[in-house]
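User: Thanks for the earlier help. One more: CASP2 and RIPK1 domain containing adaptor with death domain. Can you show the sequence and predicted structure together?

Assistant: Of course, both are below.
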Amino acid sequence: MEARDKQVLRSLRLELGAEVLVEGLVLQYLYQEGVLTENHVQEINAQTTGLRKTMLLLDILPSRGPKAFDTFLDSLQEFPWVREKLKKAREEAMTVLPAEMRKLRPKVSVTCLASQLTCRF
């Protein structure tokens, strides 16, 4: 999963816990699509509350590969308002992260001995 998608899940963690019931279609869809293993499904279902189930799913998802976030979005058919909120947060993260990366990029000065020019990257 990409860093921006992990950040989106982290930033909306409490809202997702309050609004998404992972039992039923969400878990089964993620299992069907290979994002979750049978052991994951059993471990999530063993949790005593819906909130704990959702939190465990959110703990597992980031480590489940590059398609995990998009597949999670697809699994939220019963929760279209949540899916839209996640998509919007992802779009916002896509515009914010590149700007932050430019700030972090170090100014490098390299002297080219052959031509005695200073090159800036």
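User: Great, one quick takeaway?

Assistant: The first helix runs from residue 3 to 11.
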